[in-house]
Structures are given as C-alpha cells and as structure tokens.
Amino acid sequence: MAKLHETDKDENGEKFLTGRHQEIPRHPEREFDKTTLAAGAVLWRGDLENVEAIEVACIHRPRYDDWSLAKGKVDPGESLVAAAVREIKEETGFDVRLGKLLGKTIYPVKNTTKVVYYWTGEVVGGEFVANDEVDAIRWLTIAAARELLTYDLDREVLDKALKRFRLPATARILYVRHARAHEREKWSGDDNLRPLDKKGRRQSEMLVPELAPFAPQRIYSAEPDRCHTTVAPLADELGLDVTVDPRFGDAAWVDNQVSCKEAFMDVVRLGGVSVICAQGQVMPDMIAWLSDSGRLPIDAPINVKKGGVWVLSFSGEDLTGADYMPSALPVR
C-alpha cells in the first residue's frame, strides 16, 4: 500500500469535533505508536452579532498547491497552544486571541499518525507577508470558504467553528489548579504558606505561553501561597495584578458553598477573559455545579490535575463550553 501524504488526508482521515466539551489527553504524543502532533486555528474577523458576515482565512500552500486552514507541527519544548499561535504567526503574520477548542482531526501521513488540534482564533493584529509556506491568504465568508477549501476534513472543522460562532461566549474563565507544591506531610508550618516545588515552579512558568494567547484581562487566586505564585509569572508577563480571594479555595467551599458560587459568578458577570487559580477539592464540584445549572452537561469524570486548566465559556451566566488542558508542560 502506498504511503499517504498530507494531501491525502481525506482518504483515511477521522474527525473528533463533536460536542462543546473537549479534552486534550495528558500525553497526546502517545496516542498512537508514532504520532505527529500539530495545532492551528480557524482564523476569523468580524462581528459575532452577524455570523453570516464573519470572514475566515483560507491559506494557500505552494508546496501542496492547496487551500487549507492555518496549522503547523509542534516543536520540541512546546505545548499545543504555544504551537498553534507560533505557527499562525509564522505562516500568516497574524496575532490571534484563542477561543474555543474545536477538537482534532486524525489522518495517516507516511509512517505516522498526524493529530491536529484546532481552536477558534480571532485576529487582533499583525499583517500577512507572502512566504515559502504560505504565498496567499483569502478572507471569505464561511460559506465561500467551504467552497474554496481543498479538504473535507477542513470543511468539517469550519462547520464546527460556525456552530461555536452561533453561540458566542460573553465570558471565559481560565480555571487553573495550582501547580505542584511541596508535600503536605513534609510541611510543618501554615499550610497556606506551603510553596511550589521545582516541578510546580516550572509548571507556573509554562502557564504563561499556555494562557497568554487567550488574552486574560484579570487574574484571581485563592488564598494559599501556592495558588497565587502559580499565576504570578502570567501576571508579570501581562502586567496584571493578582486579586486574592479566599472564596476561590477549598476551605471556603467547605464552609459556605453559596458564597463561593457567588464569587465565581461575579467574575463571569464581568465578561471578557479572566483567570481563577483554585484548588483540587473545589474545582470539580464548582464545574459540576456550573454544568448542572448551565447548558452543557458533562457526564465524564471532571479531572483537575495540578497545573491543569479548564477553559470555561459562558453565554450570559450559562456554561456553554468546557475545554480541559491537563498540563502546560511541553507535549514533546
């Protein structure tokens, strides 16, 4: 059997784009015996109040003489999010604000399985200059882009993006579990002062390229030192303060769940994009409550690994999307 190439991706390609709840595996690079990871986005511009007029970017790759969506391979030392924004910048020159994780496509390429994760990405700056990888970009309505795109798999991704555009998020919460800290059993002082360990400090640094592409506007943290130090590097990078509120922590959840829920929803009501760094007991319960009271049933177990992130999308006060990224550490 002849080896398949990038241009053959419709031959045996599969899509995993169903549902507004998406999760990235802890080790996506191990999903297949030989996995080639890539990441990209449906680049868009316009006004979500008029979805039919939104324009999306179709790129022309001279190497393949095709029209496709912007994406590229993950480099060593990168997360999927970091790879997506880097590849978009290199290929198109555009800066983007990432939104909803749409899912992934999978297809064989030569002797590997290529797995491509896609987000929505609003263009917020930059300028296209033709290059060796991309020599032309066409901005088209979604209907026109479907006609131009070469591959059915890309059309499926675009169709999924259209569904997300029809229910736009008025707020997103990047809900972070604090990074790994020194073991509780080996810490004799005030538990709120228990610091991050070496891996935890690395996780906190890697959260910067993981979360900055979502363009957070404000950062909140539970009281423990390990929570606000987890998001301190991101705050420094973005020039934002960290607002510490005990109601985002485990102890407050045990004492007064109603108050904790109200604190969370106060942030949702602000709109835009916010970061909340919390703890491992409160987070699954809070997400389950949001699911039960919103428009997004989550039937699977709600995982919250240390340093992991849930990107929670809201329409008004209703949860409408949930994407889990279990680690900001490099996938390769």
TrEMBL record:
Domain of life: Bacteria
Key words, A-Z: Hydrolase
Pfam families cross-referenced by the UniProt entry: His_Phos_1 (PF00300), NUDIX (PF00293)
GO process terms (BP): AMP biosynthetic process; ATP biosynthetic process
KW Hydrolase (keyword) present: yes
The UniProt record lists the keyword Protein biosynthesis: no
GO terms assigned for molecular function: bis(5'-nucleosyl)-tetraphosphatase (asymmetrical) activity
Disordered, as annotated region: 1-31
Basic and acidic residues biased stretches: 1-14, 20-31
PANTHER family in the cross-refs: BIS(5'-NUCLEOSYL)-TETRAPHOSPHATASE [ASYMMETRICAL] (PTHR21340:SF0), DIADENOSINE 5,5-P1,P4-TETRAPHOSPHATE PYROPHOSPHOHYDROLASE MUTT (PTHR21340)
Family per record: Belongs to the Nudix hydrolase family.
Name listed for the protein in its UniProt record: NTP pyrophosphohydrolase
Organism in which the protein naturally occurs: Corynebacterium liangguodongii
